[in-house]
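Q: Sequence in, structure out?
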Amino acid sequence: PAKEPSVEYNYNAYIVRGPYTGEQLEYDLSRLGQHSLRYLKSCITIIGPFHLILFLFSFLFYDPKHLYSRFFSYLLLLPMLLLYFWYSPVDRHFIVFIPFFVILSSSVLSEMSFRLLSRGKYVFGVGFALLFLQSYVPIANHSPTNSVIGNHRKLGEWMHTHIPDIKGKLIADRKPYVTFLVQGRYYRYNKVRNVESLTTLLKENNVDYLVVDDFYTKTKNPGIISLLDCKDRPNLQFVYAVDDSAWGKAILYKVN
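A: Exactly. Output:
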């Protein structure tokens, strides 16, 4: 049976899991401006204005002998363009394009410095150093040790130390990080309606533990946001919580 289109559809791709009505199309189009601004913000935040400016200069500064290779390099940007039409972009989706921009920007810097300036090699060296810093910062900010994954890692380490029989247990989580660390079995939940429906789902599938955290609960599962209070509930017993200052809590419940 078709699912509720108001719950599951992607307004960027115009793909719907279920019936699609004219009212929903009108709603999609009304969100197009907001989506475009979000895409542009993520692009500037991760790729950086320095790379983007040099990308524009790349159409002016190039060696005619390398025209075809330059054209081929532009084709590598096609997946980045498809992000605009296919998926709601978030910052981490742009990380994979940084190497391309480093290569292209280095080439443009080389052409500009040696064509316009007598001391081109020094300008190129300074410019390349700036490129490296511009590219390193967003990657560092999205590394596993500086992201929501860090919460799950700390929780997994605690479970491995304090729950001797945790290996092989079935653990429900939005992501499999904790399960991987404790060598458990993974049960994925997503977009659950409320705590009661989630509890029923866990019991039906014989889940042993439930992990919730601030980030994925607020962004993907707002219906169970009350579980962030770290309190016991029918069939759910609070066990432990990691409270990271940057990414909030990661909480462990035992399913009774």
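Residues 120-141 form the longest helix (22 residues).
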